[in-house]
Amino acid sequence: MSAFVLALKHSGSFLTTNGIGSLINILGKLTISVGNSVIGYILIVSLEETKDSVQEPLAPTVVIFVMSYLMASIFMGVYSITSLTIL
Questions:
Q1: The domain containing residue 56 runs over which residues?
Q2: H or E stretch at 73
Q3: Cα-based angle 35, 15, 27 (whole degrees, multiple of 5)
Q4: I want to staple 57 with a disulfide (CB 3.0 to 4.6 A). Which of 39, 44, 46, 62 is the partner?
C-alpha cells in the first residue's frame, strides 16, 4: 500500500522520466540505424570492390538499416531498463 501511495504522490516525476526515457530510446534507435545506413551506403558507393559488383545500393542499405535497428533495439533496451531502475 505504501508503494502505491508513493507512486501516486510522485506520478508527475514518473511520467516525465518515462516520457523523456522513451523519447531518448526512439531517438537513439533512429540515430544509430540511420548513421550506420549512411556509412554503409558511402562504403558501398565509394569502394572499388563493391562499386562494380553492386548495381543498386538501396537494397544492401535497407538490410544494413534493419540489422542496425535490431542491434540498436537490444542496446537501447538495456538503457531503458537502466533508466527505470534508477527511477
A1: 2-86
A2: helix 58-86
A3: 5
A4: 44
What's the angle, vertex CA 80, arms to CA 87 and CA 36, rounded to 5?
Answer: 150
1-32 confidence digits (pLDDT tens):
887 888 788 888 878 888 888 899 999 999 99
| pLDDT reported for residue 34 | 97
For 26-58, letters b (16+ CB in 10 Å) and e give eebbeebbeebbeebbeebeeeeeeeeeeeebe
DSSP designation for 10: T
pTM of the full predicted structure? Answer: 0.79
Distance, in Å, from the CA atom of 8 to the CA atom of 4, rounded to the nearest integer, reads 6
Domain count, the chain: 1
